[in-house]
Amino acid sequence: MLVEQIRGFPKHLSQHVGGFVISQDKVSDLVPIENAAMPDRTVIQWDKEDLESMGLLKVDVLALGMLTMLRKSLGYINEYEPDIKTLADIPREDPETYDMLCAGDSVGTFQVESRAQMAMLPRLKPRCFYDLVIQIAIVRPGPIQGGMVHPYLRRRNDLEQITYPSPAIEDILKTTLGVPIFQEQVIRLAMVAAGFTGGEADQLRRAMANWGKDSTLMHFEEKFINGMLQGGYE
Fold first, then answer.
1. What 8-state DSSP symbol labels residue 71?
2. Contacts for 117 with CB less than 8 Å, ≥ 6 apart
3. Kind and range of the H or E element at 227?
4. Which alpha helices (H) appear in 94-220, and where do they start and end?
């Protein structure tokens, strides 16, 4: 059938709004390129996964309107508070600011103004900068789908005991109350608990990041389980 023959074909071509590829040699000597719709511009015909396999560096350069707002806000504040000239001059642990955040009053606050973030703020109740780091990281598809949100909240509110299978695991997870939230923790867990090399652990991280889109995550299942069993973890 014709459908079977065209299954997996590219549906359409698209151009990244701000992706740039950095190369020591001419890019046209390494990968196929074509003219873009914009005059005097070219685009690479490969996607980012293909570029990574070639060892090419891709960076995204995107506009962020919040930076303009912060710059203008600092200018207004400086008119009344001459000592505050840059972001570094603003107190990092201001209790009144955290009171507002704990109440979910974060409209216009970068990273924590979405509905999901505003709903989480009164539950997590951040009282320091690192709490905000966790707040932003935990309201993501990975931690939510992985069932990490509720265990962290219960432990934070002293409703669940925090235990660790070994001191080595405690050293990795103690800052997040025994719940793996950050990708760096996944890398360290794979190396410490399952015996992965640094390269293998990074490949695991990449597979997790691309889960659901031609992911190779399940390729690591057997090695991860066997590695943990050999390390004495069940």
1. H
2. 106, 111, 135, 136, 139
3. helix 221-230
4. 95-102, 115-124, 129-138, 141-145, 149-156, 167-173, 183-194, 198-209
Give helix 149-156 / helix 129-138 axis angle, nearest 10°.
150
Neighbours of 163 (CB within 10 A): 9
Indicate whether this model's pTM tops 0.70. yes
The contacts of residue 78 (CB under 8 Å, 6+ apart) are 84, 85
Q: pLDDT tens across 188-225, in order? A: 999 999 999 999 998 888 888 776 655 677 889 899 99
The torsion defined by the Cα of 148, 134, 73 and 71, in degrees rounded to 10, comes to -100
Only one residue has tokens 């925090």, namely: 162
Q: Which two tokens stand for residue 39?
A: 């005059």
pLDDT in tens, 22-48: 888 888 899 998 888 888 888 898 888
Full DSSP string of 82-111: TT--SGGGS-SS-HHHHHHHHTT--TT-TT
DSSP state at residue 27: G
178 near 162, Cβ under 8 Å? yes
Q: Could you tell me if 97 and 121 are in contact, meaning their C-beta atoms sit under 8 angstroms apart?
A: no
pLDDT tens-place string over residues 57-89: 888 888 888 999 999 999 999 999 999 989 899
Q: Given a cut of 80, is residue 12 above it in pLDDT?
A: no
